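Filed under: proteins

Residues; backbone shape codes:
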Amino acid sequence: MFKQYVNNEQFNLQINRFINDYYQEDDRAQADLEKMIPNLNDTHSWYEAWLHFAKKREDSKDYDLASVYYQAAEFYLATTDPNKEKMYQKYRETFYKGFHDFDYESYKIPYEDSYLPAVKLLTPGATKTLLVFGGYDSYMEEMLKMMKFMKGIDYNIIVFDGPGQGTALKKGLKFIHNWEKPISTVIDYFKLDRVSLVGASWGGYLAMRAAAFEKRIDKVVAFNIFYCGLDALKMGMPEETYQSIMQLVDRNEVDQVNSLFEQMMTHNIDLHWKITKGMENTGESTPFDLIKNFEKHTMHGIGAFINQDVLLLAGEDDQYVPISRLAQIQQELINAASITTKVFTKETGGEQHCQAGHRELAFNEMNKFL
């Protein structure tokens, strides 16, 4: 279940996200959290607290928990902080020491002048292939861990970091909106005829975009729905502030937009993270340029090109995606072979972004759909 640990809305989401798999029948994480929570006051104390317990869990060979804690420790670090790369490498190192859910094969798929890292999870006798990827800030290892909820389905599962994600980003590939390009590369590399897709978070948009232009895709899962990148920026911002900013953007008031964001970011942890993470992902150097980049990430105008079977998952209280987008997406999918929709509420559980705290509910729907 989703738990309110602290007063910061985004801190709560991230804690629930990272600890999701340890709510039931595992009191290790809860014991650690009881000691950690009182110290989570700002991004510095966040880093110190998670790192402390990451080291403790690694020393006791609890590699699964250590990995989660290292990922959390890395989350708010600036790209210029040398500890960021250290945390990322410790996250991956401990993850693979503790990952035993599947037999798997690792790949480096050539892409432009770099590569896309991928892991193929093997299901004996499987006849189909599922491609799985994250979004704005998730790493393929985080998605790999979630695949335990899909174990036994008739799919070999290929999880990968695309441009702007995880190791692909570290190797120089920046975030892009036209996700059909990496998807087609992965399909070609494995010589596949048909694939299904699961895109998580911002990946909900990326999956829909890929389905619009890559017709070897037969089923597409938006986990969650994600209509456009600017929604994530707008959520949590007063409507009049957002409208004023976009008017300045439309008038090309570069300096004014950048100055405004610098002021707002000083007092807003969530906004500061969104902008700095976005610039890391895309390679843009200012908030103005980042907004112009985000404008490309939209389902506007592509819904009619999606003719596959579609599963739309939505959380009623998603803090990054307004629930009002669901009806709009449904209306724009005029040529979809089928549309299956599941809205999660506080009553059902799973009302948060990507069903944080109740992730199994989302995967139950995916398994039925696939």
Q: What stands out?
A: Residues 230-294 form one domain. Residues 144 and 200 are 12 Å apart (CA to CA).
